[in-house]
User: Which sequence fits this backbone?
């Protein structure tokens, strides 16, 4: 099986080359080209002509519901021809140390965090039922458009640490039914973290029905400067 999918990808490159096409920004499909997400990540990481993994219909398991580590910049997108509810990744995704983009899929039942990393973007994604946290920014810049984070009962829905920034935009963005909703940790003014909510959304519209109140810098305060509302004219995805 391993040899089969590897040769199918090689043949794809050869055919494109014969057709005079430039070999760049290629996509690898799961499970058509690679049987698993891990194999697809390994392929894109080592074959730089590829930039994107297209995930097809089905339930795609990360080993032991742990974290699928993304070691370099790449995109992971659900097949646009398939309803998002039919594209489920069971386990978490960690962007380390590179950046990346997630789109049009569901991330569910991660043993630790749903999506974690320094800098990444998400569009039309559901993160749910994680044992700890839903979406975590570790000191970089994260942007989320129309992202639903729900049912993370032991940790936080959306959190940022070490001077990072998370921007939440889109009328379908919601952080609900988690232990805590929006959390910004900062050890000092130098390492101040921030969560930005882009209008017409507000903190109260985005973060709803969580068990605990939103807080920042370890202090409960929905009105804190660390959880801001910004005008849409100030934001570009």
Assistant:
């Amino acid at each position: 099986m391993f040899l089969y999918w590897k040769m199918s990808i090689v043949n794809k490159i050869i055919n494109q080359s014969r057709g005079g096409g430039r070999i760049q920004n290629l996509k690898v499909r799961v499970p058509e080209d690679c049987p698993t997400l891990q194999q697809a990540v390994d392929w894109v990481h080592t074959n730089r002509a590829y930039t994107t993994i297209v995930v097809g219909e089905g339930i795609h398991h990360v080993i032991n519901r742990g974290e699928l580590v993304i070691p370099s910049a790449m995109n992971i997108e659900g097949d646009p021809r398939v309803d998002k509810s039919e594209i489920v990744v069971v386990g978490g995704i960690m962007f380390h140390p590179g950046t990346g983009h997630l789109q049009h899929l569901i991330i569910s039942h991660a043993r630790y965090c749903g999506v974690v990393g320094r800098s990444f973007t998400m569009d039309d994604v559901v993160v749910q039922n994680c044992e700890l946290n839903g979406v975590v920014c570790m000191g970089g810049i994260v942007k989320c458009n129309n992202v639903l984070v729900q049912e993370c009962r032991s940790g936080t829905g959306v959190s940022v640490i070490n001077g990072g920034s998370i921007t939440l935009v889109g009328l379908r963005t919601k952080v609900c039914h988690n232990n805590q909703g929006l959390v910004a940790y900062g050890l000092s003014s130098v390492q101040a973290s921030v969560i930005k909510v882009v209008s017409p959304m507000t903190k109260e519209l985005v973060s709803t029905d969580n068990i605990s109140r939103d807080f920042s810098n370890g202090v409960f305060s929905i009105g804190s400067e660390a959880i801001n509302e910004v005008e849409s004219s100030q934001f570009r995805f």
